[in-house]
Amino acid sequence: MKKTNLYDENDFSDTAFTNYLVHESPYFKILNFNFKPGQELPVHSHEIEGQLSIFVVEGTGEFLGKDEATQPARSGDVLISDISDPHGVRAKTDMRVLVTIAPPI
Amino acid sequence: MKKTNLYDENDFSDTAFTNYLVHESPYFKILNFNFKPGQELPVHSHEIEGQLSIFVVEGTGEFLGKDEATQPARSGDVLISDISDPHGVRAKTDMRVLVTIAPPI
């Protein structure tokens, strides 16, 4: 067993969104990203099998998708996406998200 | 892509902890459990390969382990456990957790 805390381990930065690797194993990879308003994880995708979840821990913003599609993102949201589908996140307020990728890439 | 919100979909119950299946696929299974104070997911394990994460969305309590071991659990904590290692959760306050199991069981 291993325990870590997002609030202790990762802060916000005015320069760019911050990226904290919570865990990586053969089974999944878990990352925490913190965004200041306007910061974003640009839309991207990878041509491999698997799915990812994006959980909004706090804050509001938008989930980004294919062809500039957006949908609102708020605390408590879970977005599920194939790794091969374009996906991204943009923040409107300070925003913490937890991303789980299975299998890890 | 699929979006769901924990706060919209799952509440608390005085009778027993509540269990909301957020997502299940060949890659992972995602569950949300809500506990009132004193409610618990008893220690258990399964003899299969894989790992799970328990993210504390809100509230405080304890992570439970082998031989009645406990460690404090609070908002922002991520616990990683092998599926084959005994694990559980007990709440001290109203507590929401998000559990991801890979591969799904």
In words, what does this structure look like?
Two copies of one chain form a homodimer. With 105 residues, chain A is mainly beta. Chain A has a single domain (17-102), classed as Jelly Rolls, CATH 2.60.120.10. Chain A has one helix spanning 6-9, and strands at residues 2-5, 18-24, 29-35, 40-44, 51-58, 60-64, 70-74, 77-82, 87-91, 95-102. In chain A, strands 2-3-10-5-8 form a five-stranded antiparallel sheet, with no helix packed on it. In chain A, a hairpin with a 4-residue loop joins strand 2 and strand 3 (29-35). Chains A and B meet through strand 1, helix 1, strand 5, strand 8 and strand 10 of A and strand 1, helix 1, strand 5, strand 8 and strand 10 of B. Strand 1 of chain A pairs antiparallel with strand 8 (77-82) of chain B.
User: Helicity of chain A, in percent?
Assistant: under 10%
Measured by residues with Cβ under 8 Å of the partner chain's Cβ, the largest interface is: A-B, 37 and 37 residues
Task: Give the CATH H-level superfamily of chain A.
Answer: Jelly Rolls
Largest sheet of chain A: 5 strands, antiparallel
Level-2 CATH architecture of chain A? Sandwich
What letter string, H or E per element, gives the SSE order of chain A? EHEEEEEEEEE
How much of the polypeptide of chain A forms β-strand, as a percent range? over 45%
